[in-house]
Design brief:
Layout lengths: L30 H21 L4 E3 L10 H4 L2 E14 L4 E14 L5 H9 L4 E7 L1 H5 L3 E2 L5 H21 L4 E5 L9 H14 L5 E5 L7 H8 L12 H5 L5 E5 L17 E7 L9 H11 L8 E5 L8 H22 L1
Parallel strand pairs: 1-4, 3-5, 4-6, 6-7, 7-8, 8-9, 9-10
Antiparallel strand pairs: 2-3
Length: 340
């Protein structure tokens, strides 16, 4: 099928599970009720995606408070009680982050419950997302040995362990989220991709890396407005990604200032293009979605195009996110009619 659809990862959590419209929502349940609520919300996320015509569904990240810290909760060697303020994404904004104080090991499985639950309740392809090693190393403070690269590779080993287990759980696509890849352009080709290779080592399922200019929150929008009329930063990393072992590269396309001609630098990779803008509450029309696909086809063969969202939708109002899912499915169907 041409133009299969998916989402970047997160969807808004139901208001009975967590605070609505927030990137860092507080849980509204506790203990066993919270554990069951996360699984119930996972089923709801799958149902919404299926009804909207999404072909590669995900768990919506319903079990995580944050895409990075949802993984860190399961890692020993991290002090979450004594957080420190640190500039992240090259000081784009400051955040209170946990500290690495010892050897990093997994406490156990991270996403087994939601992955197996999702797999048991959908016949469609299933995607689970994990934070990338470079992005994790940029989201924690190193109070252990002071070597960011060494720490990133240690996280890559943990990610690989969980990724292999997810594949065994029946997950079809494992995506690593690396927003740091559009910040540390010089480091991506020198060690960022190598760390990603460590994370995907031994996997036979489809692998993807998601790079983007961030959620639709004020800090990111302000930063993007400072980058000029054309975002050509990817020229530094796309050739290296094109030669990498990763299967798919995910990035923004709609309302983005990234010149689409840069997509040709990705070689023979499948390209997961964002045709839904997460930085606006305006719901796209199927016609707009199909037009973005047509624009991308000038630089990427249609057989290698996967359609999705620019980034995660976690902080978005739920009704708007659901309408955007419907637009995504309808737009891809329209594009298949026109270009199939």
């Amino acid at each position: 099928m041409l133009f299969p659809t998916t989402v970047a990862g997160s969807l808004p959590k139901p208001s009975w599970l967590a605070e609505p419209d927030k990137l860092w929502p507080q849980w509204r349940l506790q203990g066993a009720d919270l554990a069951q609520g996360k699984l119930d919300a996972t089923l709801l996320a799958i149902k919404l995606q299926e009804d909207a015509g999404i072909d590669i569904v995900c768990d919506g990240e319903m079990s995580r408070q944050h895409f990075v810290h949802g993984f860190l909760e399961f890692v020993d060697g991290i002090d979450t009680e004594h957080k420190v303020e640190m500039g992240i994404r090259a000081n784009r904004y400051k955040a209170m982050v946990p500290q690495v104080r010892g050897a990093l090991t997994l406490k156990g499985r991270v996403h087994q419950l939601e992955a197996r639950h999702a797999r048991a309740h959908t016949t469609r392809q299933l995607k689970i997302t994990l934070p990338g090693p470079m992005t994790i190393s940029d989201t924690v403070a190193d109070a252990h040995d002071g070597d960011k690269v060494k720490m990133a590779f240690a996280f890559a080993d943990l990610l690989n362990k969980e990724a292999r287990a997810l594949e065994a759980d029946g997950v079809d696509v494992i995506q690593f989220d690396e927003p740091a890849f559009n910040v540390f352009m010089d480091e991506v080709p020198t060690w960022g991709i190598e760390a990603l290779h460590r994370a995907i080592d031994g996997l036979t399922c489809t692998t993807a890396v998601h790079i983007c200019y961030g959620y639709g929150i004020k800090a990111n929008i302000d930063w993007k407005n400072s980058l000029g009329s054309e975002w050509t930063q990817y020229e530094k990393i796309f050739p290296a990604l094109g030669k990498s072992k990763i299967g798919q590269v995910s990035l923004e396309a709609i309302n983005s200032r990234v010149p689409l001609k840069l997509l040709s630098l990705l070689g023979d990779k499948d390209v997961l293009i964002g045709v839904i803008d997460v930085a606006t509450d305006t719901v796209e029309t199927p016609e707009q979605v199909a037009q973005v696909i047509a624009d991308v086809m000038k630089f990427v063969p249609k057989e290698r195009i996967v359609c999705g969202t620019n980034c995660g939708m976690a902080p978005m109002h739920r009704a708007i996110a659901e309408a955007k899912l419907v637009a995504l499915g309808a737009g891809a169907r329209l594009a298949r009619q026109r270009f199939g």
